Amino acid sequence: MWWETLNLAQKIYFCIACPATVLLVVQIILLLVGFGSGGGDVDADTDVDCPDAGSDADGDGILDNDPGITLFSVRGLVAFFAIGGWIGYTFADNNLPLAIVVSLVAGTAALVGMAFLMKWLTGLQSNGNINYNEAVGKIAEVYLTIPPKNTGSGKVTLNVSERYIEKSAIQSGDSPIPTGAKVKIISVIGDEYLVEKL
Questions:
Q1: Is 176 inside a domain boundary?
Q2: Residues 118, 140 share a domain
Q3: Domain residue limits at 159
Q4: How far apart are the C-alpha atoms of 107 and 84, rounded to whole Å?
């Protein structure tokens, strides 16, 4: 039989490579269907009824992390054992010391390659949130006339966070800013932009 024709080193490498390859294929399939990206999502809702303490808290922020290169991850170790196992299996028939060295080098290359691949793939992610503060200092176009100060708001259009948006805008000038005029975003006040005519 085929198994009896293998030497001990080939049997060991084969027993390492097969399960690692199965795990690697399962991981790739899970990544392709969206289950292997790693970021879990939890949603919770609570309701507490207690007397008003007379205080209020508000917070705003953007959570973004850069994990850097994660060299020793499950994916990396599985790639190390799968690639290193098959390379070792292939070379173990001729020269065992060479097979050990080549399999370690190939496995390490797979480990490092997987780390860089996952780093590159996480760089492709986008959270989809619009950070309205990014518009400060940008030029916008008036969509609906912006009335003089303290008499209402108009609308402006511009690109923010790689999206073309329409947003309410106010001004501090004494004359209205007509549709089509170019304005500069000065600041964000509540849910509106404070603009000045160019």
A1: yes
A2: no
A3: 132-197
A4: 4
